[in-house]
Every structure is written in C-alpha cells, then in structure tokens.
Amino acid sequence: MGLIVESEDNDVVLVPPTNFSMVDEGVYRSALPQPSNFGFLQTLNLRSIIYLCPEPYPEENLEFLRSQNIQLLQFGIEGKTEPFVPIPKDTIMAALRVLIDVRNHPVLIHCKSGKVYSKFSYCYFCCCYNSVIRLQKFCCHFSCFDGLNISFELIGA
C-alpha cells in the first residue's frame, strides 16, 4: 500500500508503516516504522511517538526523529502471550497521561509489529484511551450548559 504524491520533479511514493491506522484525530498506531516509511510520517507532522517496547529504539529512527523534532516517549511494556498476565498499571497510566495530552498530538503509538508483540497491552492501552476521550467529550458536551439557567419545565423534562 502506498500513496503517490505528484510533484514538479517526479512522483513520490509514500509508504505507511505496517499496520498503520488512525485511532482518533491526531492519534495513529502502527508497527515500528522503517526508513521507507519516513516520507509518509513527515506528512503527519508528528510531535511525539509513543514506543511500547522495552528494547532500544533503532538509531536510524532516532536520527529521523531528531531531524523532524519529534519527541520519543518509551514505555517498555513486555509483550504478553498469556491472556491473564497482569499489565503494569503504572506504566499504562503514565503512557495514557502522555497520550491524552493534546500538546503531544499528532502522536504515533507503536510496538514492533503493531499487533502481536504487545497485543494485550496495546489493546488495553487503546481501549483506555478511547474511554478517556469519550468521557472528556461527554463532560465537555454537558459543560456547555454551565452558567445557563435552563428551566426543565420549559423543555418538558
């Protein structure tokens, strides 16, 4: 899969990382980006990358992040293959704090494969993120009524 962008010089093919997807506006997920994906990542104007693996980040990727002024936030979560092995709550909560802070957006969250290595932690992480965002939007929706004197008798409630 690739995206062809026309330019004056020639056509450029932008290749997203394996298992790339948009989770929410300004929040993306994928496998570990490869050098062939760097052009595509530039189009996202990322501010941050959340890396869920405990292994060191590849040097070539670090150089790309430095050149693009993207901050790397690593939360080393061991990949789990058994369903009832506890996920480190403190690590997940710290990563969630970073993820819901819009100053870090646009953000890419990834592990090595984007699906297998940290599948349980990743799913848990994304579910928690989506729950927090929905709660924020719900609270924001009702906060628009703050300071208004609404008579429930007038609206038939």
UniProtKB/TrEMBL annotation:
One example GO MF annotation: phosphatase activity
Entry-linked SUPFAM superfamilies: (Phosphotyrosine protein) phosphatases II (SSF52799)
Family annotation (Pfam families): Y_phosphatase2
Gene Ontology CC terms, in alphabetical order: cytoplasm
Superkingdom of origin organism: Eukaryota
Transmembrane recorded as keyword: no
Alphabetic keyword roster: Hydrolase
Protein name: Tyrosine-protein phosphatase
Biological classification of the source: Eukaryota, Viridiplantae, Streptophyta, Embryophyta, Tracheophyta
